[in-house]
Amino acid sequence: MCQKEKMIIVSMVSSVLIIVFYALYVYQKYISGNPEVIHDLSFWGKAFLYFIPVTIVAQIIIHIVFAIVNKIATNEDIPSITDEMDRLIELKSIRISHWTFIFGFILAMVAMAIGKQAYLMLLILVFSGFASSLASDIAKIYFYRKGV
Fold first, then answer.
1. Where are the alpha helices (DSSP H) in the chain?
2. What distance in Å separates the CA atoms of residue 131 and residue 116, rounded to the nearest whole number?
3. DSSP category for residue 78
4. Percent of the chain having pLDDT more than 70?
5. How far is residue 126's CA from residue 108's CA, in Å, rounded to a whole number?
6. Which of 55, 67, 56 is nearest to 4 (CA)?
7. Is the pLDDT confidence value at 80 over 90?
8. From the CB of residue 33, how many other CB atoms can be counted at a distance below 10 Å?
9. Within 13 Å and on the Cβ side, how many CA atoms surround 45?
10. What is the model's pLDDT at position 38?
11. What is the Cα Rg of the chain in Å?
12. Is 27 exposed, middle or buried (0-12, 13-18, 19+ CB in 10 A)?
């Protein structure tokens, strides 16, 4: 397994762990004590706005720790040079990511059109963003192994 595949797997695992732990934290701290807060759009807006910096900081810390552990374990640096194959893989994975998010966006709009609650639309949008990130990472691993 090449270094880029390892980085992608670390990114995938960290994304899943971050969203699971944040969702559990929000549920235990706010929702379990007051189930009516689910219908408050201000609550959802704040929860998602706090989620963005938490995710960014956690991803940065995880990638720094991965680089340090990788350097200690293998005595190899993470390659910073990208070639044409890397760029093509990135473009194809971005395309898959966009289509996944667009599907989630349409699903969220359908939920609103059939009269579902507004918080459900927000949850579908966040989940589709998360799913598009995972789809992009899975596509990258697939293209690195299969070839373009």
1. 3-26, 41-74, 84-113, 118-146
2. 21
3. P
4. 99
5. 10
6. 67
7. no
8. 9
9. 4
10. 86
11. 18
12. exposed
